[in-house]
Design a protein that fits this description.
By secondary structure, the chain is an alpha+beta fold. It contains two helices and four strands, in the order E-H-E-E-H-E. It has a four-stranded antiparallel beta sheet with strand order 2-3-1-4.
Length: 77
């Protein structure tokens, strides 16, 4: 079963480019884009199992230096 989510990411000041580069190298990323507004980056992730999204966010995304906080929005339907 495929699972997809949008991860809204706030980065530390001046670190957006570094965070973008690091995130784009991670497995499971469909797209990683810098955006305007309250968040700096929106990443689209896709895995074969919904539980893997949580692991990807906690183990991979949160380990990227320069990330302050994230919000994960699971796609339904």
């Amino acid at each position: 079963m495929e699972a997809k989510a949008y991860v809204l990411i706030e980065s530390e000041s001046g670190r957006v480019a570094d965070v973008l580069t690091a995130l784009r190298a991670l497995s499971g990323m469909i797209s990683v884009d810098a955006v305007t507004g309250p968040y700096d980056i929106i990443a689209t992730v896709q895995t074969t199992d919904p539980r893997q999204i949580g692991r990807l966010v906690m183990n991979e995304i949160h380990s990227v230096e320069g990330i302050k906080r994230t919000i994960t929005c699971m796609v339904i339907g």
